[in-house]
Amino acid sequence: MDEFIPMRDGDLRWAFPGVRDAHAAAEELQAADGRLERIAVHLGLSAGGRLGYERCEGITLTGVFGAVGVPGVRMAASAFVPRRCLHGRRAGPPWMVTAYIEVDCAEYGEDCGSHEILCEEEEFDDPDEAARALAGAAGRLLGEVLARPAAYWRALPASADLPGRHA
Ligand SMILES: [Zn+2]
After folding, report:
1. Distance between Cα 128 and ligand 1 center (Å)
2. Which of 50, 39, 38 has its CA nearest to residue 6?
3. Where are the beta strands (DSSP E) in 23-153?
4. How close is the Cα of 24 to the center of ligand 1, in Å?
5. What's the CA gap between 20 and 128, in Å, rounded?
6. Which of 37, 106, 118, 145 has the fewest Cβ atoms within 10 Å of its own Cβ atom?
7. Whole-structure pTM value
């Protein structure tokens, strides 16, 4: 079973073992969390920490994950150690830093799945750099979301000639 641990209750060394400047990395994670929170506020959702650590039962923690969404639309930024399977125990490097926005397909539902509006993935060998990159990725996510009013995002899954549909 997955477990989500808010950032303030965790230890960044869970996600970034070997980090050199823990203070700077903590500030980057805080910045990323603040940007996700601004996305939530823009969408009219409750404020509060969005970024946290995630683990599966019995497995060492592997990353920080933050997600925000309205029905049919998901926005997320993460920094994690990619693993081959749930039982992998690799600690990193590398770290994968991702940011994405995806919307449910308005025409074919689950047969199609979801459409990507934003999809960024970058790999880092250095934990300090990965933490910094996560703050940057969250910033670009924030920029995309702020560029349009909340009403746009809320109407997106069903809107005509928008990313939820096929050309
Ligand atoms: Zn589709």
Report:
1. 37
2. 50
3. 51-56, 63-70, 73-80, 95-104, 114-124
4. 41
5. 7
6. 118
7. 0.89
% the chain with pLDDT above 90 = 58
Q: Which residues have their alpha-adjacent CB atom under 5 A from ion ligand 1?
A: 105, 108, 112
Q: How many whole angstroms from 52 Cα to the centroid of ligand 1?
A: 30
Given a contact cutoff of 8 angstroms between Cβ atoms, the answer to whether 45 and 68 are in contact is: yes
pLDDT tens-digit readout, 143-167: 999 999 999 999 888 876 678 788 7
Q: Which helix (H) or strand (E) holds 11?
A: none
pLDDT digits (tens, 9 = 90+) for 80-121: 988 777 666 677 899 999 999 999 988 888 899 899 999 999
Collapsing DSSP to helix, strand or coil, 93 comes out as coil
Closest CA relative to residue 63, chosen from 85, 88, 42, 82: 82
